[in-house]
Amino acid sequence: METILITGGAGFIGSHLTRLFVNKYPNYKIVNLDALTYAGNLNNLKDIEQAPNYTFVKGDITDMEFVKELFAVHQFTGVLHCAAESHVDRSITDPLSFVRTNVMGTVSLLQAAKEQWKGNMEGKLFYHISTDEVYGSLGDEGFFTEETAYDPRSPYSASKASSDHFVRAYHHTYHLPVKISNCSNNYGPFHFPEKLIPLCIHNIINKKPLPIYGKGENIRDWLFVEDHVRAIDTIYHNGKIGETYNIGGHNEWTNIALVKELCRQMDQKLGRAAGESEQLITYVKDRAGHDLRYAIDATKLKEELGWMPSLQFEEGLSKTIDWYLNNSEWLANVTSGDYQKYYTSLYGA
Ligand code: NAD
Ligand code: DAU
Question: Going by CA atoms, what residue is nearest to atom 14 of ligand 2?
Fold first, then answer.
């Protein structure tokens, strides 16, 4: 019988991961620990909140005494660590929050796991969910492999890189059983509309400007979130202890091409004239230190564990747009209140 702690389960990726584990493994007890920051939303988990193998606990991963107590009460056998401050733009204006949550929070969980599992590490696992941004930025060619040297360049990626190093340090120093995965950009339902795709979907619906940083030539490698959590499930159960796995979509898009594809699909779905939404594209000041290109080589995951992305991007994007159009209440809820203040501070009106 496994009892798994999922941190950040009320966020974007965490909610998909929690749903997958609760539904697929009725014999596992799943405890979702989330501080419910602006990015955490229990409405993301409405469909499973009554499941008998699911418990929600509101709390902060940086509160080490509280985390240790939680380990003692639930006797976790596994941890899936998703909780983080995740938005690069916010890390530029408020780096210390990222150090606190991403570095201190991760160390607090590692310490609690180490103490709880001391003398009996057999069958235990601390799985750390990380990002491809730790590898830095690529030029026109090449891919990030698991051997690529770390070169984080934003406060967000520096904090995630630091957390990865602590996870490996606990493995090497204390023999804590760990796994790490570094994934490329995710998209899909429940994505908070501060990130490029949901922000543009929201703005196209409302006929608001679509802010493109710089020339829109930066490249990201996009993966449907359900494919990401399927990869985590595969690695959690079949990956090797102490190893790192890269997860990516082999799906590179410049930001401008991606936003034009969004506009094209949404004009069709909303019954607007072809080309209407593209008129909303507005080039704005570039992000400070904006990484040019991310692209993952996921060969190890494919060859060792047989994982492949399941969706073509155009299809995944279409499913995502449909979800936002059918869940206008969710979108209205998360874009009220503080979101407006955040939006105005970053983009003006
Ligand atoms: P998110 O911002 O949507 O969700 C983060 C969750 O963590 C929220 O529910 C929030 O309430 C919770 N949280 C924040 N601080 C906390 C704290 N101190 N204590 C407890 N809970 C706290 O993030 P996401 O996009 O779902 O990303 C999840 C993880 O995946 C992060 O570690 C991120 O670095 C990583 N990742 C994200 C992407 C992506 O494209 N979104 C890609 C690769 C890796
Ligand atoms: O690569 C994985 C990472 O992907 C995750 O670790 C992060 O948590 C996640 O937020 C994401 O980071 P990015 O910075 O790549 O995602 P974002 O959606 O913020 O931006 C995608 C690209 O679009 C990036 O080049 C910046 C650009 N952009 C973004 C916003 C919000 C714009 O041009 N305009 C915008 O308004």
Answer: 88
Question: Comparing C-alpha atoms, which of 290, 83, 269 is closest to residue 196?
Answer: 290
Pocket test for ligand 1, best of 13, 127, 159, 223 (most atoms within 8 A of CB): 13
* Domains delineated in the chain: 3-187+224-247 (3.40.50.720)
Amino acid occupying residue 297: D
- Whose alpha carbon is nearest atom 8 of ligand 2? 86
Q: Is 220 in the pocket of ligand 2 (CB under 6 A)?
A: yes
- Cα of 92 vs centre of ligand 2, distance in Å, is 13
Ligand 1, pocket-test mutation among 37, 191, 224, 247, most atoms within 8 A of CB: 37
The residues that are catalytic are 132-133, 156
> Dihedral of CA 6/10/11/12: which sign?
positive
| d(C-alpha 332, C-alpha 328), whole Å | 6
Ligand 1 contacts CB of residue 83 (under 6 A): yes
* pTM summary value: 0.98
Tens digits of residue pLDDT in 192-227:
999 999 999 999 999 999 999 999 999 999 999 999
Helix orientation angle between 12-24 and 225-238, rounded to the nearest 10 degrees? 60
pLDDT in tens, 237-250: 999 999 999 999 99
39 lines ligand 1 (CB under 6 A): yes
